[in-house]
Amino acid sequence: MATAAFAGVRFVPTAHASYSHNGWDQKHIATIHDNNGPAGGGSGPGTYDEEYCVMSETSAMPVSTIGPFIQQTLTQLSFDIVWDGSADWRVDLWRAPKACNEYSTADRNNIEIEYRIRETWASVCGGDIYACVTSVSPITDATRAHQHYKYMNVHLKREQLAALATTHRARKFINHETGHVLGLRDPVSGAECMYSVMTNDLYAHLGCTATVWHPTTSDFVSVRSIANRAN
Ligand SMILES: [Zn+2]
Ligand SMILES: [Zn+2]
């Protein structure tokens, strides 16, 4: 769970930026440009925050196990390696207390991001080996002159998240896919390999060798520029 809205300021030096979607159609969560708190005050997700839920459709990895692990990965590790708090808390991630599929449709529609676990997402992600993010319900932001998305859904395979306690592999997948939610894209060639959770050794076939499993300075710089983007 996120801490108070402006509790942390991450030092972000100039660095090579990771690659992002740009132009008219920008695949990022629509709430990334702003931050606020609950209308009534107090602690909780505001309308510009990113609320997420977790659900599992495989009995081999129940939500009671993977839900807290995803939450820890996104918000509860050292501040310099978690997505939560990025771009001066314009990325403010709050876990919904129930599994996504335990909510009514109306309540579920208030949650911006879903983490979904299955044995395979071949039918959604284009092949059995892949995890992926889908962007749903495009919104035109006339002020910022681009289109972004009301909902982003992260599809992760159980196998990618196995061995939770013993390796950083599961966190590598969770953080990479969350990078997509925030507007970062995959490398298209080896020339784009850098020290980034988006261009790490998940792209060994392109020649990328970084083993990093968490967002890096390059990633934070890019997410800040996406949050600032007005084109
Ligand atoms: Zn946008
Ligand atoms: Zn990717």
Write the layout of secondary structure elements.
Layout: E1 25-29, E2 50-56, H1 63-76, H2 86-89, E3 93-95, H3 105-108, E4 113-118, H4 122-125, E5 132-141, E6 146-157, H5 158-161, H6 169-181, H7 217-228
Parallel strand pairs: 1-6, 2-3, 2-4, 4-6
Antiparallel strand pairs: 5-6
Bound molecules: zinc ion (2 copies).
Any overview of this molecule?
This protein is α/β, with parallel strands linked by helices and 231 residues long. The chain has one domain (25-228): Collagenase (Catalytic Domain), CATH 3.40.390.10. The protein is built from seven helices and six strands. It has helices at residues 63-76, 86-89, 105-108, 122-125, 158-161, 169-181, 217-228; strands spanning 25-29, 50-56, 93-95, 113-118, 132-141, 146-157. Strands 1, 2, 3, 4, 5 and 6 form a six-stranded mixed sheet that branches. The chain is globular. The two termini are 31 Å apart. The model is unreliable at 1-15 (pLDDT under 50). The protein binds zinc ion (2 copies). Residues 176, 180, 186 line the site of one zinc ion.
